[in-house]
Every structure is written in C-alpha cells, then in structure tokens.
TrEMBL record:
<keyword id="KW-0804">Transcription</keyword>
<protein>
    <submittedName>
        <fullName>TetR/AcrR family transcriptional regulator</fullName>
    </submittedName>
</protein>
<dbReference type="InterPro" id="IPR009057">
    <property type="entry name" value="Homeodomain-like_sf"/>
</dbReference>
<keyword id="KW-0805">Transcription regulation</keyword>
<dbReference type="InterPro" id="IPR050109">
    <property type="entry name" value="HTH-type_TetR-like_transc_reg"/>
</dbReference>
<feature type="DNA-binding region" description="H-T-H motif">
    <location>
        <begin position="35"/>
        <end position="54"/>
    </location>
</feature>
<dbReference type="InterPro" id="IPR001647">
    <property type="entry name" value="HTH_TetR"/>
</dbReference>
<feature type="domain" description="HTH tetR-type">
    <location>
        <begin position="12"/>
        <end position="72"/>
    </location>
</feature>
<keyword id="KW-0238">DNA-binding</keyword>
<dbReference type="Pfam" id="PF00440">
    <property type="entry name" value="TetR_N"/>
</dbReference>
Length: 202
C-alpha cells in the first residue's frame, strides 16, 4: 500500500485532496457516512485510487487521523523550541494547542474524534508501527521539558497537566460541538497554565 510518506510529489497532492475530502465528510456526516464512494466523489478521484493509495477505507481514515496528529505535533514542538526558558516554552506549547484548534479547526476536530487504540485495532497492519510510535516525539519533548522545569527525578504529571491536559480540556468540548474555541478563553488558559507551572519547583 502506498502511504502519504511513500508517494511522489504529484501523489502527495492527490493524496491530500483525498484526505481533505474524507475529513470533510467525516465531520459533516459522521464516520458511517464516509464511504469509499462518497470520498472518491468528493475528491473527484476514482475509487480505485483510494485503494491504490490507502489499501482500504480503514487505512484511509487512519492516515487522515495521522496527518492531523502530525500537523498538531509540528505546531506544538515548534512552540516548545521557540523559547529557551523552559517555563515560557511550556506556556507557548500549551497555547499552541489552543491556537491550532482555532487556526486548523478541522484537523483539530479529527485529532480529537478518534482514539489511537481504536485505530490500531481497525487499521491495516502496515500502519500499526506508525500508530504505535506516533506520539513518541511529544513524549520525549515532554520528558525533557519536565526535567528542565522540575528536575530529572521529579514527577512529570504536573507539567503534563499544565501543557497537555489544560489546553486539550479547554478546546475539546468546543471541537466536539463543531466550532473553534472562543478567543476570549485564551488569556484565561494562559493564566491557568502559569498558575500550575508556578506550583512546580525544581
């Protein structure tokens, strides 16, 4: 099966068109409405191209979710890397989750719609390793951040609460309802993140 990472430049564009169509249909009609025929028609592509590129409908939906997760991860990791001070990096990363939900709402909705464990049960075997290791870059980055803020031997849970749990909790209920979180929540989220980080001592 050809994947997003394994096709040429022209193929990447065609694959993204198909993934965009699948994303829009899932958000508009639900997963059950995202049939191979509906996706192909919306993308203006023959059904055979979906099977050629993704192997199956389950493979397509898994790739759609993987793409959304990778896009959100890039924003998150770039925000972390933009600050030398670890606490400011933590705040920036937390706020990047909120900003991604506003700037890339559809991808943020898709990212929150599926669970990795569910996709691993349904997706083709050749995607199992990709799904299994998908969060590794963020896990490694969070461990480094936690050590920088709280010390290598300190529990990571409080830093994860500030940088992951708070922002995802703030945006998820809005995404589930089909709209972006209101901008007015951003300063409140920043204050909450800083308050939690303030409780962490190295």
């Amino acid at each position: 099966m050809a994947t997003i990472d394994g096709v040429g430049r022209d193929g990447i564009h065609a694959a993204d068109d198909i993934l965009d169509a699948a994303r829009d249909i899932v958000l508009e009609r639900g997963v059950s409405g995202a049939t191979t025929r509906a996706i192909a028609d919306a993308a203006g592509a023959p059904s055979g191209s979906i099977y050629h590129r993704f192997g199956s409908r389950d493979g397509l939906l898994a790739q759609m979710w993987i793409r959304a997760i990778r896009r959100s991860q890039r924003v998150f990791l770039d925000a972390l890397a933009a600050h030398e001070d670890p606490r400011e990096a933590a705040v920036a990363a937390a706020l990047s989750v909120f900003d991604f939900a506003r700037d890339c709402r559809k991808d943020a909705q898709i990212a929150s719609l599926f669970r990795r464990e569910d996709l691993m049960r349904e997706a083709p075997a050749d995607l199992a390793e990709t799904l299994r290791t998908l969060n590794d870059p963020v896990v490694r980055a969070m461990r480094r951040l936690g050590a920088a803020i709280a010390g290598a031997s300190a529990p990571l849970d409080t830093v994860v609460l500030a940088v992951i749990d708070l922002p995802y909790g703030a945006v998820r209920r809005h995404l589930v309802r089909g709209h972006a979180p209101p901008q007015v929540l951003r300063p409140a989220l920043e204050s909450a993140v800083r308050a939690v980080l303030q409780s962490v001592t190295a």
